[in-house]
Amino acid sequence: MSRASTLAVDGGDPAVTIDDPERWKRPIEAETEIVTDLLEAGAISGSGSGFPLEFEAEFREYSGAEYCLTVDHGSTAIESAFYAVGVGPGDEVITPTVGYIGAYAGALHLGARPVFCEIDPKTLLPDPADIERRITDRTAAIAITHWNGRVCDMDAILDISDQHDIPIVEDAAHAHASEWKGEHIGSVGDIACFSLQGVSPHGKPIAAGEGGIVTTNVREYYERQLSYCHLHRSGVNDELTLEPYDGLDWEVLGLKYRAHPLALGIAKVGLENLDYRVERRLRYRDRLFERLEELPGVRPVWPYEESETDGLYGGLKVVLEPDELGRSPEVVVEALTAEGAPVRGPGFSYMEHRRTIFREGYDLWGRGRSPIDGEFCGLPAYEGYQEGDFPISEALDERVVTVASYIEPEEGFVEQVTRAFEKVAR
């Protein structure tokens, strides 16, 4: 057997020889120009006027939402969204265990108890049927995450929302350009939250260091957000038109979660090239997945047919079938890595019910005052989660692999990665 056909882990030549495949470069000159202009103008603080207001209008138009508000982080965007929909002490918020603490931490700190749910094994996104099974008279919100830009089943989830009169808070930190039935995420559901964390091309789809965006079509939610976290926003008293917010002064409720104008300057450049990067990244995904799905024991995770993903953050997901491969996922990943394939795993990055605070409980504010430690504001005694509580998610955690994705990969890179999978699958 030739060295090229022998597995690299057994001493053969690796299939992937291109070490740094990404050829797309972020437009630093454009970022520098807009940041310099803001610095020279002294426009480096404030909200509700000038450049920050212009950016909100631009993203509002892009998303198709009625209202848009910028904040300092994606996590505070989600916290303000929970406040906007009325989450408070003694409530429950349903969210997937294959999730992220930032997607529900805001609800926890507002006094609500996270209630985890299973994922759909086909898409690895929240399972609408399991969400509905976990609804109680204490459920105040359903918090979903569009992982890696893959959009959740919005038809089913919004139907649950309508039937039970429970608002949906969307963690869209990975989904700035994602769509459901041709409509941008941000305008489809009740309220959507975006992150601007990181640096392109490896940060969030629009990356500006730090920052966040919230969009909604509900005026009540928008005004509650303004009152919650936009201290000293220009013109805030003119924007607050509904009771009881119209009675607040310009210091509203005292929190200042405003976005930094310099971050929004960088974000504007990212928004301008977002669609190009998405189109190129999806082209890479399609070429790779169409080859991988021909292999035994390798199942690429596609989005729902009704949606399109932006695919710009967190990589591509592939589920391994050890019975077909005849080897454990750990052995398969080791072999793929030896071939030079850009993979990591097996396993999800996060499994929320396994966190210590949710297994053992946690006295959040001290002196026995916590939604996840004993009884609290009408919530029953907290019991904690155990291994085996989420058999579908836990089983998939043993088999899911993340494959890095690229905007403009070096010529021949897709073929090399495909060859790595082919060798290992064989």
UniProtKB/TrEMBL annotation:
One of its GO terms (molecular function) is UDP-4-amino-4-deoxy-L-arabinose aminotransferase. Keywords: Aminotransferase, Pyridoxal phosphate, Transferase. Gene3D superfamilies: Aspartate Aminotransferase, domain 1, Type I PLP-dependent aspartate aminotransferase-like (Major domain). Transmembrane segments: none annotated. It comes from the Archaea. Its EC number is 2.6.1.87. This is UDP-4-amino-4-deoxy-L-arabinose--oxoglutarate aminotransferase.
